[in-house]
Design brief:
The chain is an alpha+beta fold and about 70 residues long. The chain has one domain. It has four helices and two strands. It has a two-stranded antiparallel ribbon. It is elongated, with a radius of gyration of 13 Å. Keywords: Plasmid.
C-alpha cells in the first residue's frame, strides 16, 4: 500500500489568473494544518512548487517573466 495524497488548491496566479493545485502527502498536509511552514512540511517539493503554494504563481509563469526559479 502506498502513501495517501491530498490535492491542495493554490491561490490564483497573479500573472495568468488561473487557479492551480499541488499534491502533498497526507503527512505533509497535516503538518501544514498544524502550522508548519511549507519548506518544513514539504521540503521535498521543488522551490518553485512551494512558491506556487505561497503565492499562486505557476512555475511556467514565473519562468516566462523572471527566468528559472531554480537558478
Amino acid at each position: 500500500m502506498g502513501e495517501e495524497h491530498t490535492r491542495v488548491e493554490t491561490p490564483c496566479c497573479t500573472f495568468c489568473g488561473h487557479a492551480g493545485s499541488i499534491t502533498l502527502t497526507d503527512e505533509e498536509f497535516a503538518d501544514l494544518e498544524a502550522g508548519a511552514a511549507i519548506q518544513d512540511a514539504a521540503g521535498r517539493l521543488p522551490r518553485a512548487v512551494r512558491e506556487q503554494f505561497i503565492s499562486g504563481i505557476h512555475t511556467e509563469c514565473w519562468d516566462s517573466l523572471f527566468g528559472d526559479l531554480e537558478d
